[in-house]
Amino acid sequence: MDSFAGEKPALRWVVHASVLFLVVLWVVPTLGLLISSFRTADQIATSGWWRALFPSEQNLTLRSAAPETQVLEDGLYVIQGKLFGDDQTVKISRWGISSREIDAFTPGETAELRRGGTITVDGDGNYRMENTEEFTGNRGARIFVTAELPPEFTFDNYQTVLFDKGSSDSMGRAFFSTLTVTIPATIIPILVAAFAAYALAWMDFPGRALLIAAVVGLLVVPLQLALIPLLKFHLNIGIGKGYLGVWLAHTGFGMPLAIYLLRNYMAGLPRDLIENARVDGATEFQIFTKLILPLSFPALASFAIFQFLWTWNDLLVAKVFLIDATGQTTVMTNRIVELLGTRGGNWEILATAAFVSIAVPLVVFFAMQKYLVRGLLAGSVK
Amino acid sequence: MTPALQGLLTIAIGVLGCVGYFYLSNQFLDKVLCPPRGPNAGRNINRANMIRPWLFLFPAIAALGLYLAYPVVETLRLSLTERVPGGGYQWVGLDNYAQMAAEPKFWEAMRNNMLWLIVVPAMSTAFGLLVAQLTDRIRWGNVAKSLIFMPMAISFVGASVIWKLVYDSRPEAEDQIGILNALYLFFGGTDPQTWLTIPFWNSFFLMIVLVWIQTGFAMVILSAALRGIPEETIEAAILDGANPFQIFFRIKVPQIKATILVVWTTITITVLKVFDIVFAMTNGQWETQVLANYMYDKLFRANDWGVGSASAMVIMLLVTPILIWNVRQVRNEGSPSLGGD
């Protein structure tokens, strides 16, 4: 197309640049949260996540070793050591010994300590304190440094959110609750809908057209309408709030899309194939299980992804049909909303919790994007 | 029992139950009820063929009827009644609707919902179309599309957290950690803004979240539609000396009008049901209320099932034109919009 589209090279650059701009615009918000989930609470609160990728200049308050480590060298009492661990590469630009003047000295200069003696700090964080008399007290001297620190990331947040037995215990549990909701709520509607879709596509019976129209009509019914009537119904028949209720609800709500997608796909399978099987004496049940199901794999996969994403990401249905007052069965989305309310400022917890819940759908998305796209197109473009 | 084990067990029971029903009911039909042998073999085969579709359909129809059709009727009934303190219901006619119409919060939700209905489908479709067109001819187009499509997999709640960080605001003296405020200050803004508490405009900041999610959907479908346009029409336009913009607006867009409509209506349905974003980000404070969240408030906070059901019926009413259009589309072999979720 390029050759005859009459496009100027300038226009091509504009196209590339605009696409790049849009992609950055779309990715940056997610990237921000992802990076934040690997930073400590202090880092998140004091600097934007976009600074985390570059070495940053920070003001730190450190302390020298305690006086008890001093040694006597040629009549001088000496304390020396390093301000940073061996694994850190740090560039100190200024340092000081008073909180009022944290940048009083450059590396290599020598400062007079208030309690007697001198101190020298070099650019790499090595310090040496000298005194003609013995250092006293039981704590080291405070040293203020302005230093360039390399980017630093931590997995601690994930450790806390997923495995800590303390306050955040329920995120690990919520993960399993979500999984427990999702898997049956994905598999059961597929099974139920596949049989119905086959009947609607390949069996003749009175009322078929009407049923198809009804399914399409129900596609758009907002599930909001179902909340109270069904909650009442579940309470009346004794299911109450729980996994069974939420599976049934998801099965019902996913049913129109499932039937619609699968019927469309099955109706497109070659007629000869099914007629031949019938002539050969196969029962409808055999045709369905041995022929239709395997051939419909792409459609089954695309609906499975839809339903999986939708049940995994759902908040409303779980809130209404699953989560009871004890909160034992809370799902991740609900847990995150609770965190937003109670710990809205704790970004390290929030970001990590959100990413734990986002990670699984993202993996599914990137692994099975082909089927997802195919499913969308099967439903909307003919 | 650990939750994991319990989950696995229930999955097994659920799936086995399902498979069991279909297998056993078919066996029962073929072996016991209408065996295709003996003196009545012919009649039995016909009978079995009449019954079998309903065996296949029964669980699906039961689920559809109970979980979607019945609630519509029941919600309508609830919206016309009121719970009596001792138990039971009392017919109150349109009182619930009148009570709802007298509440400023309801009209705020209606106004916001109308804004959402205009802005989100329009922006998502426009961005989707733009990306679809731009990525059509570049080599890394698929990577770009994949990244813009990605938010589709993220939950509304997850997206809310993501965007809350974008909109975060710190006092002026501190470093901003929300990128929007950082950019705002960088480009000459004076004080950091708390974006989600500025009435009227905050609704737009919430809408951006949904546009961000839905653009990928619009893009995927419109991109396929663009590819489906016959090359000859474009070649002819080029020969006639049309410039790229004319080709896009005069040749391509008119040919995919039907698909644009499907995308638009599908996003409209999603917008009407949007609950999680508002619930998680502002919970309807600072004049950001929308119908779905208003309804949730009424049902589960105020415990007022009458008004809650009435507001659910308002959502249903707004969806109805699309429902009718959908059914007619299918009758005419067109494409309906997908409600799904």
TrEMBL record, chain A:
Keywords: Cell membrane, Membrane, Transmembrane, Transmembrane helix, Transport. PROSITE patterns: ABC_TM1. InterPro entries: MetI-like, MetI-like_sf. GO terms for biological process: transmembrane transport. It comes from Ruegeria profundi. The chain crosses the membrane at residues 13-35, 175-203, 209-231, 243-262, 291-309, 349-368. It is found in: Cell membrane. This is Alpha-glucoside ABC transporter permease.
From TrEMBL, chain B:
One of its GO terms (cellular component) is plasma membrane. Belongs to the binding-protein-dependent transport system permease family. This is Alpha-glucoside ABC transporter permease. PANTHER family: BLL4140 PROTEIN, DIACETYLCHITOBIOSE UPTAKE SYSTEM PERMEASE PROTEIN DASB. Keywords: Cell membrane, Membrane, Transmembrane, Transmembrane helix, Transport. Residues 110-326 form the ABC transmembrane type-1 domain. InterPro entries: MetI-like, MetI-like_sf, UgpAE/MalFG_permease. PROSITE patterns: ABC_TM1. It is a multi-pass membrane protein. One of its GO terms (biological process) is transmembrane transport. The chain crosses the membrane at residues 6-24, 54-73, 114-135, 147-166, 204-226, 258-281, 305-325. It is found in: Cell membrane. It holds the Pfam family BPD_transp_1.
